[in-house]
Write a structure and sequence with these properties.
The relative contact order is 0.15. The protein is 30% helix and 26% strand. α2 crosses α4. It starts with 13 loop residues before the first strand and ends in a 7-residue tail after the last strand. The protein is elongated and about 60 Å long. By secondary structure, it is of the alpha+beta class.
Length: 222
């Protein structure tokens, strides 16, 4: 199987989840999606991560994003783990978590760890998943891939920021600079002339011939 790259069609799959059986592409419909994996249930870092995603659920929803977790335990373990997550983080996990006990989806998305990378994430010769994140657009194309080691919790504020940047760049001919936040100035796409940019944006400032900053129209400020 060819490796997954930005722009690849996200592989479709069927899976059992805490919200029932799903077909991935059908589940996403016309929404954006975030698929993120966990080494196993009852792991400390993942318990905080799933709690954070539950807390941020309104933020994902207002961006039209469906979140889908994955861990390599069965549904029975998932149910018990969700109780722990809710209790510790004072949340109510509502998004689906895939029961990928046979690691079929993890293999499909090349999420499995290796002894060479992290021997602590391979038990009795069976690899667990690394902390992968795939952002998928409504066309089912992979737009962003992040991979974290088992020891490093993910920054979901950054994932939301990346979604904001991706969605904005689909609407406007722009790129976003380092540490950009919604409402801040953006960079005019290199394929747009300065004169054309002045017709599109309310203000354009040329720092260098190839680096032009622009203020967004009011409707794209938030």
């Amino acid at each position: 199987m060819a490796p997954l790259r930005l722009g690849s069609i996200a592989p479709d799959f069927e899976a059992e989840t805490t919200a029932g059986a799903i077909k991935f592409h059908e589940h996403l419909g016309d929404s954006w999606g975030v698929l993120f994996s966990h080494p196993a249930d009852f792991t400390p870092v993942c318990t905080t991560e799933l709690g954070e995603v539950a807390r941020l659920a309104p933020e994902f929803e207002k961006r039209g994003v469906k979140v889908l977790g994955l861990s390599t335990n069965d549904l029975g373990d998932h149910a018990k783990w969700v109780d722990d997550i809710n209790e510790v983080n004072h949340v109510n996990v509502r998004f689906p978590i895939i029961a990928d006990k046979d690691r079929r989806v993890a293999t499909l998305y090349d999420m499995l760890d290796s002894v060479e990378h992290d021997p602590t994430n391979v038990v009795a010769g069976i690899p667990f998943t690394v902390r992968s994140v795939f952002i998928v657009d409504p066309a089912k194309k992979i737009r962003l891939i992040l991979t974290y080691p088992a020891s490093c919790g993910r920054n979901f504020d950054e994932i939301l920021r990346a979604i904001d940047s991706l969605q904005l760049s689909d609407r406007q001919p722009i790129a976003t600079p380092a540490n950009w936040r919604p409402g801040e100035d953006v960079i005019v796409h290199v394929g747009v002339s300065t004169e054309k940019a002045k017709d599109i944006f309310p203000e354009v400032n040329e720092a260098l011939p190839y680096l032009r900053f622009a203020k967004l129209p009011q409707e794209d400020q938030n």
